[in-house]
Amino acid sequence: MTDVVEKNNASFMCTLYVVLGFISLACNSMNILIIISSRDVRRRYLYLAAYNVGEMVNAISYILTGFGRGRENDLGTLFTPTTSYDCFTGKFWTHSLIIGTEVLAYTMILITCERFFAVLRPVSYKYIFQDNNKIIFLAFIPIACTVSLLMAWLSSYTVRDRIVNTQHCFIIHIVAFYISLCSFVVAWNINRKLKSDNRASVKHNLVVWIAISASTAVLVSIPSFVMLIRLWTSIEFDDIVVSIAYSMLGFVSIVNTILNFIFHSQFRRQVASLMHIETSSSYSGMNRLPAVAFIGHRH
């Protein structure tokens, strides 16, 4: 009976990952299409486009994980032991789990640093964050992800004989959490320096941006927190709880797309332009509200 429950829970997890992955992939593909459809938008929101690419990589990781674990579940091998090294070298979804969250985290800290210079060092900002320099900064992200993969391989190799109880091959995102936390600290520091100037804080939507940075750090840390508890204590979480914990970032990317459409007039205009329809004035009262995904990119 227990085996049947575990298999059903695993089936739910795999189905959730695949469905969420495809929906998130569609949402972020639309976001990128909106950005690249206009030269001005593309120039202003380059880092947002990179963030959406990271969201797409994360969505692909959900799909790969869902299909991979689903295959193991169908074969009846998902709940059989394996080694840490085999998890990294023998499973095709573990690498995407690492890259998906780290691309998001590295892009988030680039966005936050851009905000720091735009608000507190405007003269330096115009020099440091020129269009060509932005591309150079983005080039460091795949390099950093490659280093992370090499470190992950080395970590798995040093404990290559360690036995894990199942072939889920979970990943604990320690690096992504610390990077996201650093983004929050930078955003909080900007707000602290401008706390005497309420107009500047409102202009740059710093309170909302701090909330976004903090929530990103929390959401990235939830899967690691759940897995560390599972690893270091006798508390067990079934696959339903684990899958929901790992799905948080995917859900947020979908919600962000919806909020962008509702609250960001330029986003709606680009959608209308692509679909060759006239923009509706029914949202005109909402144009003053900040969109979640665009909040850190206004100059």
UniProtKB/TrEMBL annotation:
PROSITE patterns: PROKAR_LIPOPROTEIN
Protein name: G-protein coupled receptors family 1 profile domain-containing protein
Keyword ATP-binding: no
Entry annotated with the keyword Cell inner membrane: no
Ranges annotated as spanning the membrane: 16-36, 45-64, 103-123, 135-158, 170-190, 206-232, 244-263
Organism annotation: Trichostrongylus colubriformis (Black scour worm)
Domain of life, source organism: Eukaryota
Keyword annotations: Membrane, Transmembrane, Transmembrane helix
